[in-house]
DNA sequence: TATAATATTTAGGTTTACCTAAATGTATTT
DNA sequence: AAATACATTTAGGTAAACCTAAATATTATA
């Protein structure tokens, strides 16, 4: 299996396992990678034989230590390139993901480490997601959803839980970017929408759905 | 045909056609890409159908306008990434080619143009090769081989005609890098080796073979 | 101009990564 | 516990990009 395809399977399994501790299901992997379930069965059997995942027929799969390392290193490359695209080339945070999806498969350790150095060893990517170090260790963020912040308690926006272009662009329009100070002024009883202030200034209402996808500290 | 493979065929044909104006031969393309001649025949037929090359059975192939554009754009990406790797990440000129071979296939026009801008619109790559602009136009260098420079005429080293690691590393060892001033002090009758001075200082002898691969202006 | 040498193509295979659709296994609901 | 729904696997195919080896063209040489 080409490293391109292999890395994408392992990354998908990693992502799904973060949510579902049991492991990743065939159908979910298929959905994540835009392929059909039969294709996934074939692929995960091979990854199992390679010792990269734990595969048992009809069971959810999990990553082995080796598989997890490849997944995490791919995430590291992805996020470092995203930092490069934003910090050095001036792209916006909603434009970078497709490029990083390709760049993450360029495998030269020396390139990754020099890039990391060039960028000043960033700890988080432009979406606030942590960048694992070269040994695969993540620095822990401990952020919480905006929907669980107490009233009138100022916090800093540190991340997001939805990475769609439309969500990112909407946040831009509202001036909600990483680092801004946010405070919840009111929780609307009717629909759980929240009134927020941004950097002290009088703010606006956010739907529960939006607030739920904003992370703060 | 994947853009990765397609770009490599077109690039190889471009390179071979630069030398052999008739076009590129099946066997030469095969050698260039490390594949077997039968594989090339199959590939060039498809590229012909796509309108990227002019293919006639048993004849050398040439690039169409469309094919040439893809080849040149691939070369542009390759050389821009090489500048990045040297200027920004601090790699040496003998380390960068394999990485650029991968990076050149990342196809996002906006990425290429922003990279170009970030690098200050370089005209030449770290090996002295010209970087075509986004319309595929090369700036002309007009350099000549060190073997055809008149005695005691100081010139500037601007390029090389051999890109092997061993050649590059040898030049490094001799202090022969792009931009140095070189003068031919003597041409040895016996073996056509040349005595050169470098940046005014007393120099050393270079075999004809080495001198022949050094370009000056 | 035959013959030999060399280049190119063709024929028949393989592997990878995908597909559809049928078969089978697992889970949920009556 | 059957029946039904849903998930997963299997079976059989395809297309891309490679291979080897045989067949055929072209080119060079005797
Ligand atoms: Mn991303
Ligand atoms: Mn990100
Ligand atoms: Mn190169
Ligand atoms: Mn170069």
- Assembly of the depicted chains: homodimer
Spatial extent as radius of gyration of chain A: 19 Å
Describe the sheet with the most strands of chain A.
Answer: 6 strands, antiparallel
What is the CATH architecture assignment of the largest domain in chain A?
Answer: Roll
Strands in their spatial order, largest beta sheet of chain A:
3-8-4-5-6-7
Strand element count of chain A: 8
Termini of chain A, distance in Å? 41 Å
Give me the CATH superfamily of the largest domain in chain A: Ferrous iron transport protein A (FeoA)
State the helicity of chain A in percent bands: 40-55%
What would the average pLDDT of chain A be, to the nearest integer?
97
Distinct bound molecules:
manganese (II) ion
The structural class of chain A is alpha+beta
CATH topology of the largest domain in chain A: SH3 type barrels
Low-confidence stretches of chain A: none
Shape summary of chain A: globular
Beta-strand percentage range of chain A: 15-25%
Order of helices and strands of chain A: HHHEEHHHEEHEEEHE
């Amino acid at each position: 299996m080409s490293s391109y395809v292999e890395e994408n399977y392992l990354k998908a399994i990693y992502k799904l396992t973060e949510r579902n501790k049991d492991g990743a299901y065939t159908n979910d992997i298929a959905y994540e990678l835009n392929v059909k379930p039969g294709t996934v069965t074939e692929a995960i059997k091979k990854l199992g034989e390679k010792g990269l995942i734990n595969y048992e027929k009809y069971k959810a799969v999990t990553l082995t230590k080796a598989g997890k390392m490849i997944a995490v290193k791919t995430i590291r490359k992805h996020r470092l390139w995203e930092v490069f695209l934003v910090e050095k080339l001036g792209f916006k945070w909603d434009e970078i993901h497709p490029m990083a999806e390709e760049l993450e498969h360029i495998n030269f350790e020396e390139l990754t480490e020099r890039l990391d150095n060039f960028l000043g060893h960033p700890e988080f990517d432009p979406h606030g997601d942590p960048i694992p170090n070269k040994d695969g260790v993540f620095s822990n963020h401990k952020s919480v959803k905006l929907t669980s912040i107490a009233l009138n308690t100022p916090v800093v926006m540190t991340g997001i839980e939805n990475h769609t272009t439309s969500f990112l662009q909407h946040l831009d329009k509202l001036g909600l970017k990483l680092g801004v100070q946010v405070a919840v002024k009111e929780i609307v009883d009717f629909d759980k929408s929240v009134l927020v202030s941004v950097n002290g200034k009088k703010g606006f209402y956010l739907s529960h759905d939006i607030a739920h996808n904003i992370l703060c500290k």
